[in-house]
Specification:
The protein is α/β, with parallel strands linked by helices and 242 residues long. It has helices at residues 3-8, 54-61, 84-94, 110-122, 127-139, 155-167, 185-202, 213-216, and strands at residues 11-20, 28-38, 43-47, 69-74, 77-78, 95-99, 173-177, 205-209, 221-226, 229-235. The protein has a domain at 41-66 and 93-235: P-loop containing nucleotide triphosphate hydrolases (Rossmann fold, 3-Layer(aba) Sandwich), CATH 3.40.50. It has a 6-stranded mixed β-sheet, with helices on both faces. Strands 2-1-4-5 form a 4-stranded antiparallel β-sheet, covered by helices on one side. α4 packs across α5, α4 (110-122) packs parallel to α6 (155-167) and α6 (155-167) packs parallel to α7 (185-202). It is globular.
Length: 242
């Protein structure tokens, strides 16, 4: 990839290292010089065995953890050195998150859960934002469940609410950490279909951590971490019609 390509990358990480317990006898480095570029509109599977550093890398990409060394530019902005307020602003304006556990608020309806990011950012929810949330819920097949609370929804439905919530502020990048890891096979397929469809329809970039080889094979690019290093980074060849 050329320098010009890197300058246009949504994510441009160079030689990123991450250590825990710095200066202590238990100090351990879990990322050993990871370099990664992600272009706008990609749909990437981040794979690797447990303990390989996947979640740590995703947390650094998501501005939830800092790095020990290296460089990281998100939408062309260098992240290293930003204070907490600037990181929070960049996170809210650029990123959406889907986790293994949906983290829906049980007292809120599906619609209220989806509009929560708008409420947190601006202190109020505009009519346009509410209608956008309704449209997102409808697009993931929940037009008739908007007023239901999480307890009244299946696991797959709850995760689709979480997908709509991640997309409501129209982020450039959605990070999904084992989004189907708590679901059965049928529900996993259902949720993954929605992720791919939203990727196609909205052009949103997705980085998905998954242990499921079936789902990884349906992404467009595989990045494999082993022992804190990128061991493989390649395009996925899909079967015709797949």
């Amino acid at each position: 990839m050329t320098a010009a390509d890197n300058s246009r990358a949504l994510i441009d990480m160079g030689e990123v290292r991450k250590s825990y317990n710095l200066g202590l006898p238990s100090e351990a480095e879990v990322l050993h010089g990871v370099s990664l570029q992600v272009q706008r509109g990609e749909f990437i599977a981040l794979i690797g065995p447990s303990g390989s550093g996947k979640s740590t890398l995703l947390n650094i990409v998501g501005l939830l953890e800092g790095m020990t060394a290296g460089s990281y530019r998100l939408q062309g902005q260098e992240v290293y050195g930003l204070d907490d307020a600037a990181l929070t602003l960049l996170r809210r304006s650029t990123l959406g998150f889907v986790f293994q556990f949906h983290h829906l608020l049980p007292a809120f309806t599906a619609l209220e859960n989806v509009t929560l990011p708008a409420l947190m950012r601006g202190g109020r929810i505009s009519t346009k934002q509410r209608e956008h949330a309704r449209a997102l819920l409808a697009s993931v097949g929940l037009a008739n469940a908007m007023d239901k609370r999480p307890a009244a929804l299946s696991g797959g439905m709850q995760q689709r609410v979480a997908i709509a919530r991640a997309l409501v502020m129209e982020p450039a990048l959605v990070l999904a950490d084992e989004p189907t890891g708590n679901l059965d096979t049928a529900s996993s397929d259902e949720v993954f279909v929605q992720l791919r469809r939203m990727h196609v329809e909205l052009g949103t970039t997705f980085v998905v951590v998954t242990h499921d080889p079936r789902l990884a094979a349906r992404c467009d690019r595989l990045v494999e971490l082993i022992d804190g290093r990128i061991a493989r980074d390649e395009a996925v060849t899909h079967a015709p019609g797949g």
